């Protein structure tokens, strides 16, 4: 059976060069980077080399990169860390309605502590209007967080424009973007975007799971989430995961070398798949922006049937895909992202997300486009909602 992996937004396969770089730090180079003896020297140097590579990928200084265990941890560190550090200045923050759950749930936790949160709406394509963000800012606003691109519908947000508008409104506000869906996939420069904080994760660009980072602009004060050690210059206690950090650094280096080439090829495959799915089946609707979207991202809603059923039948044909965000799809409820862009609950249940990657081919795209229509037809014939019209 042909195997097609179209779920790169959930995680990407680790690049062989990344694995090769990690292996010594799983075996002979096992020392603790904080140790003063010789066993700690090479691991310490490897961590700092990786820090430089990640910094280069996003246009930052190496001392502005702080390693975490995931993009979700980086988001929590940014949102909670800024809110708690600046509590005396204000207890209000602004986020978009389609943020990742690691941002939204972090704000919900802060609300229990007395903070106030304004969620800015999006249009039918999932775009955030900079004017709406500015309008939501209050005198006590300390943080604005708008993601760079949405992992579920693929829409790329005008983050540079939003950040500029926020800074013009009030210079003291900290601006954060969740760039987990874009770093290593698109060119990302924290200076050009005007960011104070940026989250990223290596598992999105052929690095290891369990390796993420938070860019913190020099001079930005943030309260640590994890206390108990001086690692990461006192902002994240705990022995460093050296193999994962090394892998993240190599993945960043490889991504920087091939960003344009990867994106150009994926756009062609993406557009081919979008075109075939929407033209060869009826009642199939594209979600997200038609052009301002991630290069390998195709998201649709199929009317009258559930995404989970389609996924199971696709899997039987060797095709791996997703239905909404991996972090929320198992909840078996309508996606907050699809709800925010105005998709009705019944239609949102038919969500399908195909995310392509470096190994994806035209043959893979055509295979999916050929396999899916019979599955949809079969499931619709079983659906009490479908009357063949």
- CATH architecture type of the largest domain: 3-Layer(aba) Sandwich
Number of strands: 12
Beta-strand portion reads 5-15%
Spans with pLDDT under 50 lasting ≥5 residues?
Answer: none
Provide the structure class. Answer: alpha/beta
Please compute the radius of gyration using only Cα atoms: 21 Å
CATH superfamily of the largest domain: Type I PLP-dependent aspartate aminotransferase-like (Major domain)
Helix run count: 12
Describe this structure in words.
This protein has two domains: 4-11 and 259-382, Aspartate Aminotransferase, domain 1, CATH 3.90.1150.10; 16-254, Aspartate Aminotransferase, domain 2 (3-Layer(aba) Sandwich), CATH 3.40.640. The protein is globular, with a radius of gyration of 21 Å. Helix 5 packs parallel to helix 6 (159-169), helix 8 packs across helix 12 and helix 9 crosses helix 12. The strands form three sheets. The chain has a seven-stranded mixed sheet, sandwiched between helices. A three-stranded antiparallel sheet has the order 9-10-12. The chain has a two-stranded parallel sheet with strand order 1-11. The protein contains twelve helices and twelve strands. It has helices spanning 16-22, 41-58, 71-85, 101-112, 130-136, 159-169, 190-193, 242-280, 307-316, 336-340, 345-348, 362-382, and strands spanning 4-5, 65-68, 92-96, 116-120, 141-145, 174-178, 197-201, 212-216, 284-286, 297-302, 319-320, 351-355. With 389 residues, the protein is an alpha/beta fold. The model has no long low-confidence stretch (mean pLDDT 96). It is 39% helix and 13% strand. The chain starts with a strand and ends in a 7-residue tail after the last helix.
């Amino acid at each position: 059976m042909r195997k097609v992996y179209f779920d790169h937004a959930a995680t990407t396969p680790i690049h062989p060069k990344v694995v090769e770089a990690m292996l010594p730090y799983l075996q002979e180079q096992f020392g603790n980077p904080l140790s003063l003896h010789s066993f700690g020297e090479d691991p310490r140097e490897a961590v700092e080399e990786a820090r430089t590579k990640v910094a280069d990928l996003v246009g930052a200084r190496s001392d502005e990169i702080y390693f975490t265990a995931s993009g979700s941890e980086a988001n929590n560190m940014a949102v909670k860390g800024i809110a708690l550090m600046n509590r005396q200045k204000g207890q209000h923050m602004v986020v978009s309605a389609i943020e990742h759950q690691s941002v939204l749930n972090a704000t919900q936790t802060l609300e229990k502590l007395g903070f106030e949160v304004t969620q800015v709406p999006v249009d039918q394509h999932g775009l955030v209007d900079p004017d709406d963000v500015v309008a939501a800012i209050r005198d006590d606003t300390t943080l604005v967080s708008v993601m760079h691109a949405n992992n579920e519908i693929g829409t790329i947000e005008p983050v540079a424009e939003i950040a500029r508008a926020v800074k013009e409104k009030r210079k003291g506000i900290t601006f954060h973007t969740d760039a987990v869906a874009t770093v290593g996939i698109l060119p990302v420069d924290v200076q050009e975007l005007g960011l104070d904080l940026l989250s990223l994760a290596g598992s999105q660009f052929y690095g290891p799971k369990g390796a993420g980072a938070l860019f913190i602009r020099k001079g930005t004060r943030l309260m640590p989430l994890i206390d108990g050690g001086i690692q990461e210059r006192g902002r994240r206690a705990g022995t460093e995961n050296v193999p994962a950090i090394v892998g993240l650094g190599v993945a960043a280096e490889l991504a920087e070398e091939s960003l344009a080439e990867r994106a150009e090829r994926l756009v062609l495959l993406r557009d081919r798949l979008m075109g075939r799915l929407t033209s060869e089946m009826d009642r199939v609707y594209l979600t997200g922006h038609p052009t301002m979207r991630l290069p390998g991202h195709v998201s649709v809603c199929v009317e009258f049937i559930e995404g989970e059923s389609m996924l199971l039948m696709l899997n039987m044909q060797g095709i791996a895909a997703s239905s909404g965000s991996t972090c929320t799809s198992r909840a078996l409820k309508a996606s907050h992202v699809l709800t925010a862009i105005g998709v009705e609950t019944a239609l949102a249940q038919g969500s399908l997300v195909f995310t392509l990657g470096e190994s994806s081919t035209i043959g893979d795209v055509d295979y999916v486009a050929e396999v899916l229509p019979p599955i949809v037809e079969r499931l619709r014939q079983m659906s009490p909602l479908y009357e063949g019209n």
